[in-house]
Amino acid sequence: MFLALTVGVIPIMAQNLKGYVYSIEGKDVKAPMPYANVYIEGTTIGVMTNEDGYFEINDVKQKNVYLKASYTGYASDSILITDPDSSIEFVLTEGIRLAETVVTGRRRGTSMSLLTAQKTELISETGLMKMACCNLSESFENSATITVGFTDAVSGAKQVQLLGLSGIYSQMMDENVPTMRGLASTYGWSYTPGSWLESIQISKGASSVVNGYESITGQINLEHKKPNNTEPLFVNIYVDDAKRVEANVTSGVQVAEKLWMGILAHGSMEQEVHDDNGDTFLDMPKTKLVNVYNRWFYLDAEKGIQSRFGVKFLVEERRGGQDSACHDAEGAKLYETKIMNRNITVYNKTGIAVGDKDGQSLGIITNYTLHDQESVFGLKSFSGVQHSFYANILFNSSFSPSHKYATGVSFMYDHYETDFLDSLMYNKTPLTKFSKSEAVPGAFLEYTYSYNEKLIFILGLRGDYNSKYGWLVTPRANLKYNFSDDIVLRGSAGRGFRSPNIISENIGFLGSSRMIDVSTIDGLGIEDAINYGLNLAVNIPIWNDEKATLSMDYFRTNFRNLSVVDVERDRHCVYYYDNDGSYADAWQVDLSVTPFRGFDVFTAFRYNKSMITYKDNGHTYEMEKPLVSRYRGLVNLSYATKFRKWVFDVTGQINGPSRIPGMNGYNSQKRYSDVFPVFFGQITKNTKWWDVYLGVENLLDYRQKNPIISYTNPFGEEFDSSLIWGPLMGRKFYIGLRLRLF
User: Fold this and answer.
1) Which residue has the higher pLDDT, 59 or 227?
2) Considering the entire predicted model, what is its pTM?
3) Residue 720 gets which letter from DSSP?
4) List of E strands, 301-379
5) What is the Cα–Cα distance from 521 to 565, expressed in whole angstroms?
6) Is residue 2 within a helix (H) or strand (E), and if so which, with residue range?
7) CB 249: neighbour CB atoms within 10 A?
8) Maximum Cα–Cα distance for the chain, whole Å?
9) What was the pLDDT predicted at 98?
10) 578 and 563 in contact (C-beta within 8 Å)?
């Protein structure tokens, strides 16, 4: 009955669109235009006009559609069809603007842009599918630019490194809105599922002043799937041999003529007890995570208005340390970690075309984040609440096509209330409360000069008044010059600032018996650094019209003030203080090539030299930054059959040694970690409606031996789980399914 009714109703609902397409010849004389394209915008429904310029599109079920006509060498035109019975007539005029062309091609998983003024690495959706990419931290295994590691062996918290420095010195952006700041940065790398993302852009060096002063080593920008440009329903299900189960759902639907709604949902759970090295501690904590992101998109093309707004909610629970299932000592107190995170974020981005100039616009961005964190590490605890508000009003315009500028004002407010308690008998610290508020109004101006598609020069300056640290002036510059279409030189220089949240950003030291010296925390100044660097990118012709891309760069970061985390002076303590003189050098070379159709090769090598200047009783000591790998090499091989029906990916890494912090003060003998390899592999079967992927991580089963010092006495003076430089989990097999249901 349903089928019969449906078939009977469709002819009634359908409509036929008929009309003509003309061009102007001579003086206002209309002439029929044969073989012009006429189609419904946003669909593949369309026809070509006949020799008389006539077209007819039958059985159109949508109402109030935009019909578009185009022809090469003529300006295209669109008409809103509200009455299908009316006479439809297009009149196209000649112009230098060509009709829209859609080009479909293969995109490499990782590519280097030759168009941007900054050295930018793009990880596309194809690249995100090369591995399981359960979350953001696992999305960089194919990148030599970023290194991911654990902060400790008991919490499961991850950290990234860019240009030889912690990820807190790179600005995290969510579609160009600052994110993952303060308390939210501690565990935030595990909160964004890879299947939510459209792409990731990694920019090195001084970035735009438009987004604030916090970027020092670069920016990492996340582009989520858009409500108006994604599948109506996409499902990704993942399970591995460690019994981690994960499900992701993304959906985008048009709910009104100018309004789209999207849902991104994630749920994951890992409750299995794993202690493969037999140290009575869980190799990974037991976790539960729920993350829901509701997005809306409004577009009024006629008025030149578009707006994106949404709300994100997250709750996470982690339980690690010792578990009764793998610790059978009668009457012994268990060392347990309990971590709870809750986050809610509300944002809006609105753009309005203003004036008559092409590209002139006004943008308004607002974002509010509430993050609540509770954590217990044995007999230590840390909890806090963060309220953050961000607003940016941006005006884009130009003096001419070669001279453009962006200017505006911004406001940022952060308020933190945190508590720290250490009940260990060796270094009892009573409940210590920290309260910090920062209100930062600011203004900025950025000028861009471009010449003949060869030269781009960007000069930016911003001034901010921080209620805690005073006036902050941030100059930045970027230069790109094309010697030819295949040789590009880039340079950048700029200053950046960062307000430290010293305990939460070094959460791994809570997983030890070290005494945390809290006496100096309130007196720490703002971190201040200058970053500069060069990049040369060259396209090298090989064969079959293919080109290999070679990229070489060098970046240096000099700290005028650094909040030093000193674990060298005393093996039983952590000291915090300000100091200058620290620096980080980073060299990197990348090569990507497609030897033959379907087969991509990406190789890279990076070398770091990161030095910290410590001080003690008036003396200064320069030492290599601990737990930073000196070098990293990477090779990724990817082969896809025709139409990507089958995809095979293999990635190999070689990780160089990192210095382990001195166990007996500055003068102790230097110790270094092992050089170790890590291999990944994945096979994917793709179809129109579903994909199945099967993979392995850490194929050679390499693990850091004895990651926890003095694990037999977790409440003793020598206990330490913070000296992590290698993998904590061994070989892992996984399988996943992607479904596109509509």
Assistant:
1) 227
2) 0.83
3) B
4) 305-321, 336-353, 361-377
5) 11
6) helix 2-13
7) 20
8) 100
9) 39
10) yes
Residue 457 corresponds to which tokens in the numbers above? 């020069």
Contacts of 393 (CB under 8 A, 6+ apart): 362, 363, 364, 365, 408, 409, 410
Cβ-proximal residues to 693 (8 Å cutoff; 6+ apart), any chain: 129, 132, 682, 683, 684, 685, 735, 736, 737, 738
> Which residues contact residue 444 at a Cβ distance below 8 angstroms, ignoring those fewer than 6 apart?
209, 210, 406, 407, 408, 409, 410, 460, 461, 462, 463
pLDDT at 667: 62
Alpha-carbon dihedral angle through residues 123, 606, 700, 702, given to the nearest 10 degrees: -110
Question: Residue 421 is encoded by which pair of tokens?
Answer: 């308690």
Q: How far is CA 487 from the centre of its chain?
A: 28
Block residue for tokens 């990197």? 588
Sign of CA dihedral 157, 160, 165, 167: negative
Task: Please measure the distance between the N-terminal and C-terminal CA atoms of the chain and give it in whole angstroms.
Answer: 23
pLDDT digits (tens, 9 = 90+) for 286-336: 999 999 999 999 999 888 899 999 999 999 999 999 988 777 666 678 999
Structure tokens at 91: 């009149």
Q: What is the DSSP letter of 186?
A: T
**Secondary-structure breakdown of the chain: helix, strand, coil percentages, each rounded to the nearest 5:** 5, 60, 35
Task: Give backbone dihedrals phi and psi of 381, rounded to 5 degrees, phi first.
Answer: -140, 150
Q: 356 near 339, Cβ under 8 Å?
A: no
